[in-house]
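Exercise 3.2. Students should predict the tertiary structure of the chain below and write it as structure tokens, then compare their answer with the key that follows.

Predict this chain's 3D structure.
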Amino acid sequence: MAGGIFSPLGSCSELEKANCHPLVCLLCHEPYQHPCLLDCYHNFCASCLRGRASDGRLRCPLCGHPSVVRGGTGLPPVDRLLQFLVDSSADGEEDVQCANCDRCCTKAELDTMYFCNTCGQPLCAPCREETHRARMFARHEIVSLSKRTKDIHKKCPLHEEPYIMFSTEKKSMLCINCFRDMQGESRAHCIDIETAYMQGCQRLDQAVMAVKELQTSTREAIVLLKAMIEEVRNSASEEEAAINSLFSRMQEQLSERKKTLLKAVQSQHEEKEKAFKEQLAHLASLLPTLQVHLVTCSAFLSSANKVTLSSLCPQINSEYRAEFARCLEPLLMLSPRRSIVGSAGGIGPG
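Answer key:
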């Protein structure tokens, strides 16, 4: 049950599934052993909380609220009321053995067992009749075993006198000697045990009603929060479905757009490739003609004399420049014909 081996409770759902017995620790799932009360009013065994404190603060394993711890133990104070309830429950559940004859008594047989407050030992009915009827036990206080826990704190430990008063100032019970030893102004704050008991019961009833109202409000808040969580989950699921649907539609549209663009690019590529191939075929068919003309020109230049060349130059310029311009302009996509003519004119003799 060392505190280091336990991890905080994950969620309220785990708490609902767990055994929520009021006298059972939520960490070790065993009856409380020295229950400690945190600032958030959650209780845990001292051994379950040992080693969890850091820098004088201890975080609640259930809600995470920090609690200030003082002293060298590193533990919050013991819940005396819860310890009393645990002890009372244990006294009623454990088997009791007679101190004289070793006879065991179960919970169903408590009415047949007795307890000697003087000896501090349980007794069965036969032993009470046989042993504690003697004169030497005449002054022993014998009560029913079921009333032992109720009668065990009736006497003042200082004066061994029964309690008869209660101090509202010091919040403690008083015997007759304690009352006599008090100062006069402090006696004004003392009431009898029965009155204190009735007032305590009234305050306890009021506290119980307040706790019940708080419990009802808490349950209503839990139901409301669960409904809100479910609504948020449904809304998130709907949003997720809508986003997935939108994304799917966008993917389909993008895919169709991609196909359309790729088809258009492919069509343009095929058209341009076809046009370039046609131009390339025309230019390739023009090369032999150009080579023939170049050979003819070279042969003419090498064989003609000055008079023949001068007489034929005007005829060459008028026939070949226009022919070259007409053939090259649609193939090379040259715009004005006069630029070609001008360029070709620069070739002739100056």
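Discussion points: The domain at 1-94 is CATH 3.30.40.10 (Herpes Virus-1). The radius of gyration is 56 Å.
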